[in-house]
Amino acid sequence: MTNPNNPTGKYFSKASIKRLIEAAECLGVYLIVDEAFYDFVDGYEPISSLLHEYNQLVIIRSMTKMFAIPGIRLGYVLASEQFISDLRTIQPHWSVNSVAQEIGLLCIEDNDFQQKTRELMKIERKKIFSFLAHNDYLYSDSSTNFYLMKDSFSKESKRLFLFLLKKGLIPRHTYNFPGLEGNWLRLAIKSPDENIRLMEALKQWRESSL
Fold it and tell me: Where would I find the Aminotransferase class I/classII large domain in this sequence (predicted)?
C-alpha cells in the first residue's frame, strides 16, 4: 500500500496502519507500506515506531521526491532485523554508489529544506484548492504535493488533458488506475509561478467551456 495514497494524496492514520498490520500477522503475510511522499505531509504521524512491535511490517521510503533528485534513484527500507538480514542475501553488489550515498547524507542533514518545502506546499495547496472550488473543479483532499482533479461539468478529462498539454502543462492521466478510467487528472503542487500558470490555464478552460 502507498501512504500517502497514490493518486489521491490522502494518507492513513497510524491507528489504521496498525489494524492492517495486525490483520497481516493473522494471515502470515507482510504489510509493505510505500512512504515515498510521507515527508511532504504536514504533521505526518510516523509509523516507524511500530517496527518494534510487529515483524510483518516493511516500510519503503524514497529520497528522490522531497529532494528532487530522481536521477540518483536513492531510497531505503525499514523492517525487522531478520527481514533486513534476509534482504541483504539477495541485494546486488554496489547497489548504491558512493556518490549517491554522500548526496543522501547531505539531504538527511538538511532539515531546514524539508520544513520550508512542507510550508510552501501547504500554502500553495490551499491556494490551488481554493481556486478549484471557486471555479467548479472537483479535487481530492490531498495532504501531499499531488492531487486528483476533474471538471465538474464533464464526465471525462481527455479534452482538458489535451488542452493543458497545448498550454505547456503536463498532467498525469489516470487511464491505468482501476476505478478512475481516465476521468480524473493527477496534478502536482509546484512553485508559485508554475501554479499560477496552471490556474490561468484552468480559468481559460472554464471560460471557453461555458
Answer: 2-201
Q: Give residue 184's region: left, alpha or beta (phi > 0; psi -120 to 50).
A: beta
CA pair distance 148, 169, nearest whole angstrom: 15
Please give the CATH topology (third level) of the domain spanning 113-209. Aspartate Aminotransferase, domain 1 (3.90.1150)
- Bridge partner list, 185: 149, 173
11-21 pLDDT tens trace: 899 999 999 99
Q: What is the secondary structure of 163-182 as a DSSP string? A: HHHHTT--PEE-TTSTTTTT
Q: Give the tens place of pLDDT for each residue, 70-106.
A: 888 899 999 999 999 999 999 988 888 899 999 999 9
Are the CB atoms for 183 and 161 separated by under 8 Å? no
Considering the chain, tell me which residue range(s) the CATH 3.90.1150.10 domain(s) occupy.
Answer: 113-209
Q: Which amino acid does the sequence have at 204?
A: Q
Architecture per CATH, domain 14-109, reads as 3-Layer(aba) Sandwich (3.40)
* All cell numbers assigned to 187: 496534478
6, amino acid identity = N
**Alpha-carbon span 104 to 41, nearest angstrom:** 20
